[in-house]
Design a protein that fits this description.
binds adenosine-5'-diphosphate; binds magnesium ion; 210 residues; single chain; mainly alpha; Serine Threonine Protein Phosphatase 5, Tetratricopeptide repeat; two-stranded antiparallel ribbon
Length: 210
């Protein structure tokens, strides 16, 4: 079954709860290799998203996603604000006028979103950023969508891929963002942005399973 609008709204609301619960953890991860604000940034951004939701939740999915993006863009700041802002805005653009998200739409959404991250941040694979989470996940989504899998099956399949990609950021040396200033000292820590991106997948799985 496709993701319906109720599930989409519930995904965004749950994400707000998750970023509230994980605020300290994400900030700790960022304290090790950045400026100790990633949890604060994500929490602030999604609280704003929740404030904006009532005004758009009856609109099409494209409008909802674009609102998420614009809200994050204007409230988060730092590196992750423009990156996540662009992710959701680009994703919203390819889902204009949609009332549900089938597996092909889901692939297009994530593909466009990851395209936005690439455009904004110019990360390369292995630079220890959120892109290191999204690249293998996107590849797996494409494979599953081409196979004709439905969205919940796709989300189930990508979760372990994301989990591995997240752990794989630990031994990397950061080449982009603040963590890159640390050079070799960035090795041995999990990337905060890849972690907050993983929560998007984990939370979506929870929503689709409930
Ligand atoms: P800031 O570094 O400005 O304080 P955050 O702490 O909110 O912003 O976000 C840091 C995260 O942003 C990093 O962990 C990384 O995943 C991501 N990031 C930083 N720079 C880039 C980039 N150029 N491309 C992709 N992702 C990036
Ligand atoms: Mg930071
Ligand atoms: Mg910062």
């Amino acid at each position: 079954m496709p993701i319906n609008k109720t599930q989409l709204i519930s995904w965004l609301k749950k994400l707000n709860t998750v970023y509230t619960d994980k605020k300290e953890y994400l900030t700790e991860l960022d304290a090790a290799i950045g400026d100790a604000d990633h949890g604060i940034n994500m929490n602030r951004g999604f609280s704003k998203v929740i404030e904006k939701l009532p005004a758009v939740e009856s609109k099409d999915i494209g409008t909802i996603l674009k609102t998420v993006g614009m809200t994050l863009m204007s409230s988060v700041g730092g590196a992750s604000g423009p990156l996540y802002g662009t992710f959701w805005m680009k994703g919203g653009m390819v889902l204009a006028d949609k009332e549900e998200i089938n597996s092909e739409d889901f692939f297009k959404f994530i593909e466009a979103g990851v395209g936005g991250i690439l455009l904004r941040g110019r990360p390369n694979l292995g630079d220890k950023t959120m892109y290191d989470l999204w690249a293998p996940v996107l590849e797996k989504i494409k494979e599953c969508a081409d196979n004709g899998d439905d969205v919940s099956a796709i989300v189930d399949t990508i979760l372990p891929v994301g989990e591995k990609a997240l752990a794989d950021t630990i031994p990397l040396q950061a080449k982009k963002g603040r963590a890159s200033y640390l050079g070799e000292r960035s090795i041995g820590h999990q990337d905060p942005g890849a972690t907050s991106s993983f929560y998007m997948l984990e939370t979506l799985k929870e929503v689709l399973a409930s």
